[in-house]
Amino acid sequence: xxxxxxxxxxxxxxxxxxxxxxxxxxxxxxxxxxxxxxxxxxxxxxxxxxxxxxxxxxxxxxxxxxxxxxxxxxxxxxxxxxxxxxxxxxxxxxxxxxxxxxxxxxxxxxxxxxxxxxxxxxxxxxxxxxxxxxxxxxxxxxxxxxxxxxxxxxxxxxxxxxxxxxxxxxxxxxxxxxxxxxxxxxxxxxxxxxxxxxxxxxxxxxxxxxxxxxxxxxxxxxxxxxxxxxxxxxxxxxxxxxxxxxxxxxxxxxxxxxxxxxxxxxxxxxxxxxxxxxxxxxxxxxxxxxxxxxxxxx
Length: 298
What we know:
Residues 36-269 form the Polyphosphate kinase-2-related domain. The protein is an alpha/beta fold. The chain has one domain (3-297): P-loop containing nucleotide triphosphate hydrolases (Rossmann fold), CATH 3.40.50.300. It has helices at 3-12, 38-62, 79-86, 105-108, 114-117, 139-142, 145-148, 161-178, 192-204, 214-220, 223-237, 252-268, 279-297; strands at residues 16-17, 66-73, 95-99, 126-130, 181-189, 244-248. The protein has a six-stranded mixed sheet with strand order 1-6-5-2-4-3, sandwiched between helices. The chain is globular, with a radius of gyration of 22 Å. The chain starts with a helix and ends with a helix. The mean pLDDT is 93.
């Protein structure tokens, strides 16, 4: 294990939820910083970004695996900034980012996985979901009236509907894993007080006014319901093959380091390497060298 991989596991390991049955949200403090300073974390992040660049290049060249990164959080938790900073060194050709808003009429006429299935990453690429099919077990669960818009046959909407959703997602992620798509999921865990602070900054800063809507304030009224939904979701859908990372999000500099470390760890598990060429390719390369050097002499 390389030094950076070992460090990645040290930074991200404490926040990884494998088998989620025993998980409790209160076990992770939103303001946790791992006893690191902001300066130390920034230096580690820079090294991590360089490592990600190299691993992504091998992922793309090998063209065997894909990596799906899912980000979920309450508003103002820092999903966008985490994605922007952590992936800043990645070749855009090898990365795809999709943000899922309220479903359209067309999307509501399909099963809840349909709109995200169309956006899964190709082999050799990193796919990022900013929100995802997990909204079905979060906002739809908190606002039960949204389930009516999905037009499911009434007999299918039972008291077990969320348990069934968990089972469907677990089966889907097992399917992805068996088909070469590694899955890592991040819940950026921000405190209610920090969210309030960031909302006020968006109101006071003209350059950030566009980020704020009254819906953000209204959703705060359901904070406890959301926390219960997140905990239940993580407990039922965090598995060894598709783990959740519950990442402290009150300090963005620490959030970014943990996310970076978790992605490095995920890529290191894939044993990535540049493809080895066969004898025919070696002969082709030798011929190309000969022609190039002969033309240079002329």
